[in-house]
Amino acid sequence: MRWRLLFGGLLGLAACGSPSDPPSWRLFELQRHEPHDGVAVVNQPDGFGLHIHLETDTSFKGICRPRWLPDPARLFNGNGSRPFSSGLATRAEFFEAVARRDVRNLLARELEALCRDRAPQHRWQWTEPPRTPDQVVPVQLPALEEGELLVSPVEELRRVEMLLKDQPAGE
């Protein structure tokens, strides 16, 4: 009777254990379009993780620094022979990953190499990645920020309607 109880207790404890392997936190370069423009972080069991897209910012004269995009792609098969990404991972996962020193070190190496390739005449300057949602700075694109460069959709529709109204029938 005691053995059965002990065996049942051990079986119950084993059932309460972790259902899967812990994440490997494997880190490696995963190219998107050109060398050094992506980093893979396996932060979940079974090879799932993040594909962090790397971009550079040369808006300051003579300086190349990281442009942080805190919305990474979802990494699949990160522990396999052909990792790939699709869809979006969460910002919370990005913040968790960049809190690790080993991830930041790899990001710094890859971003510096990307800057050397894209702007060799510029000086490299490291800036820390955002670690909380309030530290995220939205990317400002000049064409979208300057109103004089854009045509109002309402105004464009009005012009099209006027042009169509002035056309002779059948054209």
Protein model, in words:
The protein is 34% helix and 18% strand. It has five helices and eight strands; from the N terminus they run αβββββββααβαα. The strands form two sheets. Strands 1-2-3-6-7 form a five-stranded antiparallel β-sheet, covered by helices on one side.
Class per helix and strand makeup:
alpha+beta
Overall outline: extended
Radius of gyration: 25 Å
How are the strands of the biggest sheet laid out side by side?
1-2-3-6-7
Percent of sequence in beta strands: 15-25%
Indicate the percent of residues in helices.
25-40%
Question: What sequence of helices (H) and strands (E) makes up the elements?
Answer: HEEEEEEEHHEHH
Report the count of strand segments.
8
Mean pLDDT: 85
Which residue ranges are poorly predicted, with pLDDT under 50 across at least 5 consecutive positions?
none
Q: How many angstroms separate the termini? A: 95 Å
Main β-sheet description? 5 strands, antiparallel
| Total helical elements | 5
Task: Indicate the topology.
Blueprint: H1 2-15, E1 27-29, E2 38-41, E3 49-53, E4 55-57, E5 63-67, E6 73-76, E7 84-88, H2 91-98, H3 101-118, E8 123-124, H4 142-145, H5 153-166
Parallel strand pairs: 5-8
Antiparallel strand pairs: 1-2, 2-3, 3-6, 4-5, 6-7
Please provide a brief summary of the model:
This protein is α+β, with helices and mostly antiparallel strands. 34% of the residues lie in helices and 18% in strands.
Keywords:
171 residues, alpha+beta, five-stranded antiparallel sheet, three-stranded mixed sheet, 5 helices, 34% helix, extended
